[in-house]
Write a structure and sequence with these properties.
This protein has about 180 residues and is α+β, with helices and mostly antiparallel strands. The chain is built from nine helices and five strands; from the N terminus they run αβαββαααααββαα. The chain has one domain. The longest helix has 23 residues.
């Protein structure tokens, strides 16, 4: 069920701690319907759900907070990096469309970390080092501040665990998502 996947993989976004999270769905036949349903339920809370990439065996789904993502995309250094690699940074939807197009080429573009709230220093480090020679690995590969990243990884893990416990105890997804 998509609700549980969203909680498992996107709790920090639901909690307003992060601008976006991604997960894959293998039940392609139901994905469009489930995404529409999730948008109906989560939209009033400021959370959007979008299929970013589809292939024969799976869909890659982004759960995001458009306001937070907009702030992220306009934060220092981000528009410059995205423009360098061909993004039109005029709006969140245009950036998401470009990201989706890049995903459809068959590889995960390294700049996806920007859309998932990873520190710019780590996204740049990943790009420059082609994913090698990182200092640590958690929710992402760390090239910058290891201590800060470790604290963030722990906060995200705790958030997921709390959300899963509440969901398993009967709290509906709409009650778990914090309003924007």
């Amino acid at each position: 069920m998509m609700e549980r996947k969203i909680i498992e993989h996107c709790a920090p976004t639901l909690a307003g701690l992060k601008c976006g999270n991604m997960f894959k769905v293998t039940d392609r036949e139901r994905a469009d319907m489930e995404v529409a349903r999730m948008n109906d339920h989560l939209g009033p809370r400021g959370v959007s759900v979008r299929i970013m990439f589809s292939c024969a065996s799976r869909d890659l789904v982004l759960v995001y907070r458009e306001g937070m993502l907009g702030e992220r995309l306009s934060s220092p250094g981000v528009p410059e990096l995205l423009k360098e690699i061909g993004y039109d940074c005029s709006s969140v939807p245009s950036c998401l469309t470009t990201l989706s197009e890049r995903m459809s080429r068959g590889e995960m573009p390294p700049e996806v970390g920007i859309f998932l709230g990873y520190p710019l220093e780590d996204v740049r480090g990943f790009m420059e080092n082609k994913g090698r020679r990182c200092k640590a690995i958690g929710c992402w590969k760390v090239y910058g501040d290891e201590e800060s990243a470790a604290k963030t990884f722990s906060k995200y893990r705790k958030c997921r665990d709390v959300f899963l416990r509440k969901y398993d105890a009967g709290f509906p997804l709409t009650k778990l998502a914090v309003s924007a």
